[in-house]
Each structure stands twice: as structure tokens, then as C-alpha cells.
Amino acid sequence: MKQANKEEMYSYISQLYNLPDGIISIQLKEILFDFASRLDRTENLYIFAGQLSRYVNVEITALTYRSPKELVDLSRYLISLAENRRMADMGLSKY
């Protein structure tokens, strides 16, 4: 099970944000910047990850097979956090 970690999440966000222009949409870059700036102030990383995953999933859907590896990696990380949270909510594991 994946534990939520601010440094790891920031690493995934920054790798995606630092891609050259034109690989991901300008809107997603702005959203990533906003989320990265709020990351230090957030208390519940699982809720934060759920909010970010909405935008990441929209971008993956738009790019389809052209999605960069960094976008797919961030998506997988966010999905694993969501699965971990669901398991903890059911009492099957801890965060």
C-alpha cells in the first residue's frame, strides 16, 4: 500500500510541470503550479490527491496514447493513494 508523502507527490508534480511547452496543456500546467504551491499547507494528502486526480484524468483522456510518461506516473501514484484511502475507510488498512 502506498503511503501519502509530500516530497514524493511534489516530485511527481514537478516532473510533469517541467516538461517542455506543448506536451501538456497550459491549463494543466497552471493547475499543477497551483497545487504545488498549496501542497505544504495541506493537511490531508489523500483529499488533495483526489482533487488533483480529476484534472490529471481529464488530461490523460484528452491526450490518449500521446500522454507523457510523467503524466501516467502521476496518475498511477494518485490512483494508488485513492485505493489506499478506500481500504483504510473500510478498516482494512491504515493510511
Tag the structure with descriptive keywords.
95 residues; mainly alpha; 0% strand; globular
Question: Would you give an account of this structure?
Answer:
The chain has 4 helices and no strands. The model has no long low-confidence stretch (mean pLDDT 90). It is mainly alpha-helical and 95 residues long. Helices cover 68% and strands 0% of the residues. 21% of the residues are buried. Helix 1 (6-17) packs antiparallel against helix 2 and helix 3 crosses helix 4 (69-89).
Write a short abstract of this structure.
The protein is an all-alpha fold and 95 residues long. The chain contains 4 helices and no strands. The protein is globular, with a radius of gyration of 13 Å.
Low-confidence stretches: none
Mean pLDDT: 90
**Structural class designation:** mainly alpha
Indicate the overall shape. Answer: globular
Radius of gyration: 13 Å
Helix content: 55-70%
Helices, strands, pairings?
Layout: H1 6-17, H2 26-38, H3 45-63, H4 69-89
Helix pairs in contact: 1-2, 1-4, 2-3, 3-4
